[in-house]
Design brief:
By secondary structure, the protein is mainly beta. Helix content is 7%, strand content 37%. The longest helix has 10 residues.
Length: 153
């Protein structure tokens, strides 16, 4: 279903062996992406076509940010982002809570909210994207870092 226009498109998801663990996201161009425990696919001409070249195929969450970057949470790699035609993995962010992310949401202030079985945390999207592109591990959990658990001051 298209969420960005008044036209509603209905998709029939077929050739999927299991519906448990399915996650969906729509990119800014209106393309539907479907992820599960074994692959990420994109809807093309009414068919699911597998996306290749991922850091890990076991998708837990998909999110497209306001700049059109694709963020994935996967079972083994954790958080990764497809930006400027390549994959980046923010190394430090894949420790502890963010290794288990099952939902990614972005608020109006440019913060990412990550949910997992261990709780909820937030980080500024721009900080995390800069860390990912630089391949640095500077982002640490704590009150002065930009990565905070909900309820921290």
């Amino acid at each position: 279903m298209s969420l960005t226009s008044t036209t509603v498109a209905t998709y029939t998801v077929c050739a999927v062996k299991s519906t448990s663990g399915l996650v969906f996201a729509e990119n800014p161009a209106g393309d539907l992406f479907v992820g599960n425990r074994s692959r990420l696919s994109r809807m093309e001409n009414g068919r699911l076509v597998e996306v290749t070249g991922l850091p890990d195929r076991r998708v837990r969450a998909i999110h497209f940010d306001v700049e059109g970057n694709m963020w994935l949470s996967t079972r083994d790699v954790g958080l990764s982002v497809f930006s400027d035609g390549q994959w980046f993995v923010p190394t430090a962010a894949n420790q502890a809570l963010l290794k288990l992310v099952t939902s990614i949401n972005e608020d109006a202030l440019g913060n990412f909210w990550f949910g997992s079985g261990r709780g909820i945390c937030w980080v500024r999207r721009t900080n995390l994207l800069a860390e990912a592109r630089a391949g640095r591990a500077d982002l640490q959990v704590g009150p002065t870092s930009g990565l905070r658990f909900a309820g921290q001051e």
